[in-house]
Each structure stands twice: as structure tokens, then as C-alpha cells.
Amino acid sequence: MVSNGKGSASLKIIGFLLFLLPAMHASAQGADAQGPLLTFDKREHRAMPDIGNVPRIRFLTTLDFPPFEFLDGEGRLSGFNVDLARELCDTLQVTAKCQIQALPFDELQTALENRSGDAVIAGIGVTPELRAKFDFSRPYLQLSARFLSLKKTAGEPITPMKLAASKVGVVKDTAHQSMLKAYFPNVNPQLFDDRPAMLKALKSGEIDTAFGEGLALAFWSASGEAGNCCAFRGGPYYSGDFLGEGMTIMTRSGEPLAAAFDHGLLELARNGKLNELFIKYFPPGLY
Known about the structure:
alpha/beta; D-Maltodextrin-Binding Protein, domain 2; 2 domains; five-stranded mixed β-sheet; disordered N terminus
């Protein structure tokens, strides 16, 4: 759902994984999850800007990006980003002013520009072009790349020598292919047209390791489709150059909302609610 070229596929979560969320929630509750890797220090001070003159805060999001945004079994708008928007409104004490509306992804930017909404919380990738037109909150969730290996090799360390001797798969023409080449130039990967083909090859043993978007690999490896075949190996790996800045909230330029959201995110990180949301929606071991 990120709209930043090659990185777009890295954040797109496969729709059929939505049915896994209840199981993920149950298993994650018992895990000692580290939560989202924040890009700021929880001990710092962030002044709360004055948003008393803001008449309302209309969050814009989508419907087809689980576990970030989706319709639950009763048709209610749900997901990590939806709950985060609600928590921000409570923390900033503006709940009565807040609304959340879902639109098609390709209409979000126009709606924000036309003042049909005030903040986009939907995984839009930050680019220099967008920064020239909009403001962004700090990232509240960084994207990671991970190696997923067959369990017989998952315990082995990640070293250039071991990877060079492994059959490593990656989806071609993606940020992850470029990242793998830059970080591990001695690896001669097997290229796949898409993630399902790569994961099928991993499960069958055609390859012993796959490299890709950590969140998608975590959901797949915990699913029945994977058949308990695989586990993370090493990592996680981060790169702003290849994977972007992470999940942010986009607002119109020159308005106080982005700074207010920074203040709210800091408070949610301090009181543990941001981590609680992470545990609720994401599988254990992701970070």
C-alpha cells in the first residue's frame, strides 16, 4: 500500500491473511514482544502544539490493507492504524472532534488536498516529492527485511560465507532484491516473479532461504499454508534507502497536526499503549 515505486510491494500485505488475525492475537498475547521499533527516544520532550482552533480531525484510511485497515466480521472499520488514530485522539483529548473515514487508496492524497480530510493514516510512502507538499509525523513503525529459512537451517548465523553457500530466493525487481545485492554482494539469489512463488519454493525445499518484507513473511510463516516449515534467521534489517522511512501520518503542510501527532505518539510509546496495539495485531518475533 506504500506508493513509493519499488518499495510499494514490500508493504502490501496479502489479503487472505486477514483470517489469521484472531490466531495471531491469541499467540502474541503470551509473547514477550518488543513492539514497534520507534525512531525516537521515549525519554525526550515534545511540546504539545496548540490545536484548540482545529474544528475537527478527519482521519482518512483504506479498507483493504490488513492488519492495518480492514472491515471486521461485523463490518466495522478495524485495524492497527484505525486503533492508533483513536488512541491518538484520546491522548490528545480531542476525541469528540475525531472522525475516521475509509476511501480508495488512490483517492487519499486528493481528498487531503481538497480538505475532505485532515490526516492520512494508510501507509503512504514518504518521498521527496510528497515532503514538498505535505507534512508527516515521525514514523511509528519501521519496515524491516528478514531472512526466512527452512527450520533445519534457521538456527545457523547469517554470514556472507553461509549465505553464499545457500539457495536464497528474492522477488525480482523489488527493493528487497536491491537491498540483498547491496548488503550481501556475494549471494547469487534465485529470482521469483512474486512472493507466493518464492514461498512455495521455500516450503518445497527448492530454496532454503527467502529474503523479503518482514511483516508479510511473519504472517505467512505462522499460517497453516506454511505448515510450520520455516523460521526467521538473523535480522531484522533496516534501510531508509531501500525500505523507506516507515509508517507515518500525512497532513497538510503548515498545519499543527503532524507535530501534535508526534506528541501523541511519544505519549503512547511511554505509557505502553503503542506496544499493546503492536501485540494485538502483529505476530510475535517480528522484531
